[in-house]
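Run log, item B.
One chain of 319 residues. Sequence copied directly from the ordering sheet:
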Amino acid sequence: MTTTELHTRQVFSMRNRKNCELKFTEFYQQSGDVGHLVQAAVAAMVRNAFYVGDFSYVAKDLIRKVFLNGEVPASARHLCIYFEDYFSTAEWNTVLGHLYKNQAEYKQLTEVTRLRLERLRPALTSGVQSGERKLNLKAAFLDENGKMHTWGLSNVVSNLSSKDHMELLNILGELTIFHKKGLRQFTKVVWVDFAIDERYRNFDIRNENDPLYESKKSCDEQAEEIPVKEYSKKTARTNNVTGENSNATQSTSSVQPPVDQLDHRTPLKKKKIGKTPTDRMPSWKNLTAYGKKPKEERNLEIEKALRKKTGKKKNRKRK
């Protein structure tokens, strides 16, 4: 039996909600991996915040069962705050009792996330969304090694601010289940485009004119890129050194020899035109400058006498 996967294609590309939830159930039944399941559900919330369709509360019953009756690993404990709307007040207190020592510990560890979610939670659980037109989202993320790569999501709307878009996509940076060639794909979002017939950049943290601009010191993606100015300076220095060496060589070679040595210089040989004689050509001495043998002079009187003696007649064409 093939193992059901729960990665980027299943979470972000499937358009049928029921089929997507079926993948969640099959994955959990086959693997029992609660941490992976919870992270995939958070990723589905991020998709719902942009998607025109309804992907809110994906696999709600399964998630409720896991948090109320199962064991949630430490790798997913900090993500429980995203699922508060899945439970009633009493149930939520039960969940927090399983995961934290007390309410004070929970509030302290999730303070930053709770403040951000107060503004983002309506988008994470919005359901069907409508906009002026459907768009395609294209974003650039840094991977685990700080290398930038692009990622896309189709059939989306742009109903939020650029800051909200950035914070929603940076939620993916809290997840560790999405890998490519052994490297975690999403660590930090760099820029976002929304496109259909025309393209416009929603934000770019590398652009100094962007309100969300981050300086190079705090922007990790600049580390792997070689600055063009430094490269041009290095190239210019190399070219200057090379030019100085070549000038020195030319100046040295251009020095005139003493006058008494001018008469002893070997004259330059002219290059021959045509074939070059070789030892394989027995009659090479008779070759002209163009590589052809000169024609021998004909003695007509001797040829006439020989024809009469041998009886041979010159063939003539009949008219």
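Observations after the first pass:
- Strands lie at 135-142, 148-156, 179-180, 183-184, 188-195, 199-204.
- The longest strand covers residues 148-156.
Flagged for discussion on Thursday.
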